[in-house]
Specification:
The protein has about 450 residues and is α+β, with helices and mostly antiparallel strands. It has a domain at about 135-315: Glycosyltransferase. Helix content is about 45%, strand content about 10%. Strands 1-11-10-8-9 form a 5-stranded antiparallel beta sheet, with no helix packed on it. Helix 3 runs parallel beside helix 14 and helix 7 (about 205-225) runs parallel beside helix 9 (about 280-295). It is globular. It starts with a strand and ends with a strand.
Length: about 450
């Protein structure tokens, strides 16, 4: 059953009209943007992604392939395309994007040593903890959408490889066990890659491993069955439902206390104080981790933390609410990650006040795209030069946002005589009555969208 996510904002219709912006991009534009991204950056012969438009093939890390962890974000986008088509009941696109997601999964698995997370070669293997954990999160989502046990098996085994370390590689795992004097949270890497030294309490513990670990643990808690027996191996490949939630809460509490100040997320800590440098993906995963713990526990504090993280982005990191583009190595992909977890905050947690900022970014990005190729350089404040060289990382920002925030559900507003209607009649924002005198249960059965019901704006999903 579709669930109802309510954001009961007591607004008059006049207020609703005045709050709207004239958006010109359409639902079809959103699909076209994602298809254009794949045309420009997906190496169809291998079903993995290239680093830029100038590269003919995605051979490997040193020859044209996008970074291993960014491939997980592009796979998330493929999953989002399928999920959106499914929610809309669009059979043609359901078939198209389910096939595409399967091909990308197969291509990524072939490329990256068949998801052998104990192979630490630095070309097609795994050599940083957070690289693996991004894939843990993506594979958990694949299991949730498609139900194949293979996805869950790889998601759990990759989580455990990060958490406990690898007997083959020789590292002791990312978990900075406080009972061993390591201080809590998660370490970012093992060094040297081929002959790791034991971790010390002062080793780098970054936001980009801690909050993705919380996200992965929360998702696995939601997905694995009840009643598992706790493993006894020093290197397990799966854990219990209770373990995942226990560690999600523990790691979150450490990271929130150590790395976050009023919604601002530090990049990490080496042993002294937190090292604050603003990065959109750290804000994003903090928001996502907070939202998931809010959904699981129902504790309001987590929702408040998520909102604080989002508020910091729009108040302190944006220019006129336009999301920043970071231009360092692989950093252009940060906006795509932000899109993933703002979707969770807005739709799953009902925080619709952020929608106008998201849609403003999409409109600006669409206006400033290369209108021949329908791709963007990720700087929504500047026009993308036609035919210019573009990296896949920043180019992912616009299609990631467009996939996750459908325009057709939130924009049109017309004159509606609400004062003449029954209190619980349901209208679209364009003023079309879609149901008379609806109950909450009836609302939960309606097609995904934003409606006006009893002078309250609601989101159904």
């Amino acid at each position: 059953m579709k669930r109802l996510v309510l954001s009961f904002l007591l607004v008059s219709f006049a207020g609703l009209v005045s709050a709207q912006i004239n958006y010109t991009f359409t639902d079809e534009d959103e699909w076209a943007c994602y298809d254009a991204f794949n045309k420009a950056f997906l190496d169809a012969s291998k079903s993995i992604y290239k680093i830029n438009t100038e590269t003919p093939r995605a051979v490997d890390r040193w020859n044209g392939a996008a970074a291993i962890w960014c491939q997980a974000i592009y796979y998330d986008m493929a999953l989002n395309a399928y999920q959106r088509a499914k929610e809309k009941g669009d059979e043609a696109r359901i078939n198209k994007y389910s096939t595409q997601a399967r091909r990308i999964y197969d291509g990524e698995k072939r490329q990256y040593v068949n998801f052998n997370f104990h192979d630490c070669n630095t070309n097609t293997g795994w050599f940083v903890y957070d690289d693996i954990m991004w894939w843990t999160c993506a594979l958990a989502r694949a299991y949730e959408l498609f139900g194949s046990q293979t996805y869950l098996s790889y998601s759990e085994s990759s989580f455990c490889r990060v958490f406990y370390g690898s007997q083959k590689v020789g590292d002791s795992g990312s978990y900075a066990d406080p009972e061993k004097g390591l201080g809590g949270g998660m370490f970012w890497e093992w060094q040297p890659i081929d002959n790791p030294k034991p971790h010390k309490a002062g080793d780098f513990r970054s936001a980009c491993i801690n909050f993705p670990t919380v996200i992965a643990a929360c998702r696995l808690h939601q997905l694995v069955p009840e009643g598992r027996t706790a493993p006894t191996s020093a290197y397990p490949v799966r854990q219990t439902k209770e373990f995942y939630l226990e560690k999600a809460i523990e790691i979150y509490e450490w990271a929130n206390k150590t790395l976050v100040n009023n919604g601002r997320v530090a990049d990490g800590i080496h042993g002294g104080g937190p090292e604050f440098k603003d990065h959109l993906y750290n804000q994003a995963t903090y928001i996502g981790a907070s939202c998931l713990l809010y959904k699981i526990t129902g504790e309001e504090k987590y929702l408040n933390y998520a909102k604080a993280g989002a508020n910091y982005v729009f108040r302190s990191m944006c220019a006129s609410s336009i999301l920043p583009l970071e231009t360092g190595i692989e950093q252009g992909i940060y906006c795509a990650i932000f899109a993933q977890y703002m979707h969770m905050l807005i739709y799953d947690c009902g925080q619709t006040s952020y929608l106008s900022n998201i849609l403003r970014n999409i409109q600006r990005g669409w206006n400033n795209r290369d209108k021949v190729r329908n791709i963007s350089n990720g700087n929504f404040l500047r026009a993308t030069a036609e035919g210019s060289a573009i990296e896949s990382y920043p180019a992912s920002a616009l299609p990631a946002l467009m996939l996750l925030f459908p325009i057709d559900a939130v924009t049109e507003v017309g004159e509606v005589p609400f004062e003449d209607s029954a209190q619980h009649d349901v209208f679209t924002l364009s003023g079309q009555k879609v149901k008379e005198d609806a109950t909450r249960e009836e609302l939960s059965q309606m097609k995904q969208g934003i409606y006006v019901w009893g002078n309250r704006k609601i989101i159904t999903k």
